[in-house]
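ok here's MarR family winged helix-turn-helix transcriptional regulator:
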Amino acid sequence: MNSMNEIRKNVKEAFELLDKVTTKVMNEHKSLISHNLTAKQLLILKTIFLEGKMTVNELSTRLDLSASSISQLLNKMEKGSYIKREINPDNRREIFVTTDQKGKELFEAYQKVDDYIIEKYYSKFTVEEVIVFKDLVKKLYGIVHE
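and the structure:
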């Protein structure tokens, strides 16, 4: 078998196994992380949560979505108390977006699940194996973003 076929075969097998791991873990913890957000809304919420405070334009640029589509998604999220919007006191044309109570609670639940997964599963690896895993993912990230 040539090297490209070998790479293809092994990557597909790894993806299939990762899908099975993700499905099992998500099923085990779905009650902790239940929400009614779409994938885009979850991505927006995660971005805001990690940044702390962002403008609609910053979100639009970061996520490569139009400001109007961001605003529509934010409307639904605001009604659900996942985010809140505030007018920038220094520039009244600018709106700051931050996480609201439900958004914070959701990410606290995700962090608990992450910690549980790390303790239950990744702790079975050696530190060296975890570093190799991280380095491979980091290398893949660099390749994808070239």
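+1. The domain at 31-144 is CATH 1.10.10.10 (Arc Repressor Mutant, subunit A).
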